[in-house]
Each structure stands twice: as structure tokens, then as C-alpha cells.
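Backbone-to-sequence.
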């Protein structure tokens, strides 16, 4: 069975060998750049691992895995531009290193490239692979639009927030696993279960990100926390606080959200104290555990011997329990 680290190595090697033209330089060099600056390679590795659950041969999963990773990085390139982010994986974002128009056009080229790779799937699964990929891709776009919409309001319910992260984050993780299962020649029933496993784990993964931004140990996390608080980003903790029954808290939160000039450390401290008062760390941890267990229930139902699921099961425990 292939470990996560082994799958990462395979993906990194394949990405290094992707054929891109030399000219126009400002179209293709940003693509090489964003693919070269690291990342966990989580989604494409899950595609390979999802295939490996059903088959000892994972070659048929490589093209869809590359399609998933190229598409994911395309979304990051455009997300950074929309969010006006200056740093990605400790490196300047594409629109900062080059310019905004270059980031738009290079991102568009990456989207085309991702479809080039998904179209290379073996013929007997191509139609289904395209359908899975298209569904995941449009859901990511829907989730991003909700995220943009929610930036402009404090009136976001917890179900609305969970739906947004399911679309924006979990759908691509779920699609990656489903494509892997399809490449491994799984039965339709098992392929759907693999999607449900990925969907729930993906939600738990994003909730863990929300939690780490506030409560991670900076020495382990690799950066100071509170970035989401400073930028008023809607997270499970902030949305839960804004929906609190303690009506005295809402005006305080809204005051900080509306402030343009503020002391960064003071804002983080006061909002974190509100989260602590409402016990939102514990609430978020419980919600992560709920989705984690739902995901594992789907994995358990897949009609393959448990020994073939162990590596994937252990990986999900690592992801959901990570400290950075």
C-alpha cells in the first residue's frame, strides 16, 4: 500500500515533468512558480490513495490527480488576487511577483491545463471522471462566491457557513477521492461512499484550520495566529459568536468588525476572549469530531477489507488532529 509521503513524492515528480511552453514567459513562468513553491499535495495524494484502496496499481489515477492539483493551484492564484493576499506558502503571491492581469491569465491557462489532464483518463472512465471533476470545480466556484458574499455581512447562519466550506474546501477533497476510487475500478456504491468520506473529512479539515488560526501554538504553527480575526474572515468561531444568544456580545463583535484603525494585538485578544467566554474552542472541537466520525462511518461501509483502508484512516486522523 502507498503511504501519503510516497504519493506526495510521486505527485511532486510528475509536476516537475509537466510540459509547459517557454513563451510567452509571463504566461507560463507564473504557473511553474506556483507549482514549485510547495504545498502538502493533499488532494492529488488522496486521489492516488483512493485508487490504492481498490487496486495495487495506481497508474490510472495519476492524470486525474494532476488535474486536481493544477486546478487547486489555479483557484489559489485567483483567490490570492481576490483577497489581495501578498504571501502564499512563505513566497510572494503571483499577482505581487508579477501583476494582476498576469495572475488572471496564467490562472486561466492553468484551468485549461487541468482539463487537458482530466481528459487523459482511460477511456472506460472518462465520462464519469469528467462529470466528477466538473461537479467539484463548479462547487468550488460556488463556495468562493458565498465566501465573497459573506464578507459583506455579519448575518451568516452556522448552516450557511458549513455549506460554504463544504463547497469551497470539502468538495475538491471529496472529488479527489472519488476520482481515485473510480480509477481503481471501484463499484459505484463504493465510489459514492468514498465521496461522502471525503466530504465530511474535508469539512473537518477546514474547521481545524479555523481553530488553528486562533489557538495554535505559534512555535508549531510557524506563524503568529489571529490572521482570520484581524481580517474579519468568517470562520466557524466568528459565525458561532455572531449567532450567540448572549446579545451583549454582538455589538462588541460588530464594533471590532467595523473598525478600520485598530491595534492588531488588542483586537485578537478581545475577540479571543469572547470565543473563550462562549466556549467556542470546545464547540469547534466537538464539531470537528462529529464530521470526522461521519467520514469514518462512510469509509467503514466501503466493501473492501479493512486492511486496505488503514493507511487512509490513519492519514485522516493526522490531518484532523494536526497542529499546523
Amino acid at each position: 500500500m502507498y503511504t501519503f509521503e510516497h504519493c506526495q513524492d510521486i505527485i511532486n515528480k510528475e509536476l516537475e515533468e509537466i510540459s509547459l511552453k517557454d513563451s510567452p514567459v509571463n504566461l507560463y513562468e507564473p504557473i511553474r512558480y506556483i507549482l514549485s513553491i510547495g504545498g502538502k499535495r493533499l488532494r492529488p495524494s488522496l486521489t492516488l490513495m483512493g485508487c490504492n484502496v481498490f487496486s495495487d496499481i495506481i497508474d490510472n489515477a495519476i492524470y486525474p490527480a494532476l488535474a486536481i492539483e493544477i486546478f487547486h493551484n489555479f483557484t489559489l492564484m485567483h483567490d490570492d488576487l481576490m483577497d489581495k493576499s501578498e504571501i502564499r506558502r512563505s513566497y510572494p503571491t503571483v499577482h505581487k511577483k508579477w501583476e494582476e492581469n498576469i495572475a488572471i491569465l496564467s490562472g486561466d491557462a492553468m484551468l485549461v491545463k487541468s482539463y487537458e489532464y482530466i481528459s487523459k483518463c482511460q477511456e472506460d472512465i472518462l465520462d464519469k471522471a469528467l462529470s466528477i471533476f466538473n461537479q467539484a470545480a463548479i462547487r468550488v466556484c460556488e463556495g468562493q462566491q458565498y465566501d465573497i458574499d459573506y464578507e459583506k455581512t455579519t448575518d451568516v447562519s452556522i448552516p450557511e457557513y458549513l455549506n460554504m466550506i463544504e463547497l469551497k474546501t470539502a468538495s475538491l477533497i471529496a472529488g479527489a477521492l472519488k476520482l481515485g476510487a473510480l480509477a481503481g475500478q471501484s463499484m459505484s456504491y463504493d465510489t459514492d461512499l468514498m465521496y461522502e468520506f471525503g466530504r465530511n473529512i474535508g469539512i473537518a479539515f477546514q474547521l481545524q484550520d479555523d481553530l488553528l488560526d486562533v489557538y495554535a501554538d505559534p512555535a508549531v504553527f510557524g506563524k503568529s495566529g489571529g490572521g482570520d480575526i484581524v481580517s474579519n474572515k468568517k470562520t466557524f468561531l466568528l459565525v458561532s459568536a455572531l449567532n450567540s444568544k448572549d446579545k451583549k456580545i454582538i455589538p462588541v463583535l460588530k464594533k471590532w468588525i467595523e473598525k478600520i484603525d485598530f491595534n492588531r494585538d488588542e483586537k485578537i485578544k478581545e475577540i479571543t476572549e469572547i470565543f473563550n467566554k462562549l466556549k467556542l474552542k470546545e464547540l469547534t472541537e466537538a464539531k470537528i469530531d462529529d464530521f470526522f466520525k461521519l467520514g469514518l462511518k462512510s469509509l467503514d461501509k466501503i466493501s473492501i477489507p479493512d486492511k486496505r483502508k488503514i493507511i487512509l484512516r490513519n492519514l485522516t486522523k493526522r490531518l484532523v488532529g494536526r497542529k499546523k
